[in-house]
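[Primary structure, fold]
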Amino acid sequence: MTRSPDTAAVAISLRDVNLEYPVFDADRSFRTTLLRGSVGGLIGRSRGGRPRTVVRALSDLNLDILNGDRVGLMGPNGAGKSTLLRVLAGAYQPSSGELIVRGRVSTLLGMGVGIDVDETGHENIVTGCLLLGLDKRDSERVLEDVVSFCELGQYIHMPVRTYSSGMLVRLMFGIATSINPDILLIDEVLGVGDARFAAKAEARVTKLMTQASALVLASHGNELLRRFCNKGLFLVEGTLRYYGPIDDAIAAYDTWLTEGA
């Protein structure tokens, strides 16, 4: 008999979660392609009764991610990995089903949200921390850490429009990793700047991953997944193929690839 997990131990719960994108004014050939399953879509009905093309990105997902779980998200391109992360982050709302997230979520998915190029780096750090859910006092508290991490020197007091692209990425990355979340969502591990700074950024992300109560990490790298994750979630065309121990999940994905998908 399988026992349900204690509710207090569940960080994320999905019950019959679906996400669909309506495609308006799609031509007949596009609908035919969808019906053949090549993009995982279907034909639905709009409220007005007219045919409507719908691309289903996630289908009937049911799973629990517990506190202490480090979940490796795997699957081919277009499997729905990034879409699922955005649903968990609250950027996308499920079309149907129930999603429960317990705890503060941090993600590197939306780096740069809220950046004002006419404000200084210093001002953008304070604003970014407020957008991440910190109050003004906590924003000021982490300010020194973010400034030190970004290594922007006197540019921290200059308008962001004067920054190079590399300097801007450093600032955005520093802001995005400024809080210690309960739940951390990562879509691949980012390379930021030159080799030295990229190593520094990886160490910062690694610290966040080890401190978070729950982690969901999407990656194509098996060694990275084995290094950080204890569970694996394998998606194909938005459907759950396997969810369990990381080595078994990788084996299931490798088998699927070997058998010609």
Q: What stands out?
A: Residues 89 and 189 are 17 Å apart (CA to CA). The first strand starts at residue 10 and ends at 23. The domain at 7-103+218-258 is CATH 3.40.50.300 (Rossmann fold).
